[in-house]
Amino acid sequence: MNSIILITGILISVNSGLSSNILAFLPSKARSHYGAFEPLLKELAVKGHNVTVLSPFSMKNPPSSYHHIQVEDEDLAMSFNPFSVAKHFKPILVPFRSWFMWPKFTETILNKPSVQKLIHSEGLHFDLVLFENFYHECFVTLGHKFNASVVQLFPSIPNAGVAQWHRNPYDGSYIPDINTGFCDNMSFIERLTNTVLSFIHIALSSFFYFPKQRDLMDKYFNYTGWETRPSMESMLKNISLTLINTHFSVGTPRPLVPSYIDVAGMHLKPASTLPEDLLDIMNNAPEGVVFFSFGSILKLTQLPKNEFDIFIRQLGKIKQKVLFKWESDTKIDFPPNIIVRKWFPQADILGHPNCVLFITHGGIHSTEEAIYFGVPMLAISVFGDQLHNSLVMQNRGAAIRIKYSEFTENEFQIALYKMLNDKSFKTKAAELSLTFHDQPLKSLNKAIYWIEYVIHHNGAHHLKTAAGELTWYEFLLIDGLFLVVIMRIIITIILWYVGKKLWRRFCCLKSKQI
Ligand SMILES: *[C@@H]1O[C@H](CO)[C@@H](O)[C@H](O)[C@H]1NC(C)=O
Ligand SMILES: *[C@@H]1O[C@H](CO)[C@@H](O)[C@H](O)[C@H]1NC(C)=O
Ligand SMILES: *[C@@H]1O[C@H](CO)[C@@H](O)[C@H](O)[C@H]1NC(C)=O
Ligand SMILES: *[C@@H]1O[C@H](CO)[C@@H](O)[C@H](O)[C@H]1NC(C)=O
Ligand SMILES: *[C@@H]1O[C@H](CO)[C@@H](O)[C@H](O)[C@H]1NC(C)=O
Q1: According to the model, what pLDDT value does residue 199 have?
Q2: Which GO MF term does the entry hold, naming one (predicted)?
Q3: Residue ranges of the chain with per-residue pLDDT less than 50
Q4: CA of 167 to the centre of ligand 3 (A)
């Protein structure tokens, strides 16, 4: 009887969780970003929300309340070879390159017919708009178009330029900008670089970057009623919730304002059984298996032959079997312990107990998977957040990082043997995995909880700190500092003046006495 009441109660409470109309505006062609959000979009639909997703990628077997708007495909392939620019990679220059490059991508996206159709649609109703803000600030105006609350999805850790709108802390002394490739214990020069970078993101972006986003917004988001829209800045400040792809066991510990929720690795789930042939390889490797993959963005076919040969030569000498992801059709003779394929089920391989080492570029998803399954990493990091992610792992004893720009055969060989022979890397990786798993809510459930929270509380604007209302000089207490300096000057002048008077009188008295 009790259980019947309980079950009825649960059913009622499930049904009373009102279903909402949710728009996910993800028109950019970044497969790894979409892959990280897809489980969230699916789960929202499974929970009964009416989810409309605008994306170049479609979901396999979507739930019935999931609607996909196909964005016309176009290859936005990287026009440069990341391996050749790695050597010239300077953290300080990253923002300038991004400000130049990304608005062009954004404009290409905004020109797509499906995107324009949605922007100028009439009669659609949404309670909530999700958008990915990876240099796409102008998308925030969809919240105004649909009179809906806005949730911002961030594929990695926001830099100071993004964090400034909600005044999420970005102190240069201990919060590394991921593009610097630094960890949280920085040397003097590193702290200086990091702080200058934050300054560039905040002070210079308003001259060199935000005007471009404003122009894009004015040009492409001229929907009926756009005239009443607030400034882009106030719409960005008005964002209800920001979901960021980090966690203190993945990145460096950092404070977050209440509207910033860390949801690292929403895509992670326990490993599935491998296909038979791979399972056979994994199970019949008495010394274990090394998995080698540089992810989906870096193509090993672009790797210079010299470095490629180093990998093959060194990996061919070890006792372990090596699963090697290589996208080329070229036939070359690999050593017998190296099994080459264009694609591997990465997570399921890392989740197999016989996987002893992951040789990776250190991208955020690969790093999260390595942590989730407790596999040590040998990271050859090329650019972007790879240098940061892998340095964090190295400082925790679960990885060795080699900067691609400083890569040598000798260094690779030493690191490889060290990692295969020293058990401490595995121990640290396993400890890290425990801290990642020990969370009150799984990342995916946490994200769903907070999104529904925003819906239930009409945008949950009470989560915002008062800092958002302050001007920059109030926020940095420059006005207070100014007052203190003025007071000191006034007091100094008074003291000097009074001192002079007293001195004169004292002197005069003395001279009169004489
Ligand atoms: C769900 O969203 C679609 C737009 O993708 C809309 O046409 C449909 O009317 C919505 N359904 C409900 C029940 O609101
Ligand atoms: C926008 O939504 C709010 C409730 O969230 C409502 O009070 C307001 O009337 C709506 N504005 C328009 C123009 O529909
Ligand atoms: C802020 O968002 C709410 C919805 O959550 C909306 O009603 C309001 O108009 C927005 N204000 C600004 C300044 O964008
Ligand atoms: C940061 O800490 C790690 C390990 O704790 C150490 O190896 C590294 O040298 C430190 N870096 C700096 C810049 O102090
Ligand atoms: C929006 O702007 C484009 C040009 O940028 C123009 O062709 C179009 O007619 C405008 N649409 C509306 C509804 O004003």
Answers
A1: 92
A2: UDP-glycosyltransferase activity
A3: 1, 5-16
A4: 18
**Nearest residue to 237 (alpha-carbon basis) of 21, 455, 466:** 466
Q: How many Cβ atoms sit within 10 Å of the Cβ of residue 330?
A: 6
Distance from the Cα of residue 326 to its chain's centroid = 26
The pair phi, psi for residue 381, each rounded to 5°, is: -90, 135
**Residue with CA at minimum distance from ligand 1 atom 10:** 50
142 lines ligand 3 (CB under 6 A): no
| Encoded tokens for 419 | 């990692």
Cα 207 from Cα 24, distance rounded (Å): 30
Structure tokens at 170: 């970005």
DSSP string of 443-477, one letter each residue:
HHHHHHHHHHHHHHTTT-GGGS-GGGGS-HHHHTT
| C-alpha to C-alpha distance for 7 and 10, rounded to whole angstroms | 5
What is the SS3 string spanning 102-139? Answer: HHHHHHHHHCCHHHHHHHCCCCCCCCEEEEECCCCHHH
Nearest CA to ligand 2 atom 6: 147
Tokens coding 455: 């819906």
Nearest CA owner, ligand 1 atom 13: 50
Ligand with smallest separation from the Cα of 110: 5
Structure tokens belonging to residue 438: 């020990």
**pTM recorded for the entire structure:** 0.90
Whole-number Å distance between alpha carbons of 270 and 350:
10
For 435, counting Cβ atoms within 10 Å of its Cβ (0-12 exposed, 13-18 middle, 19+ buried), the class is: middle
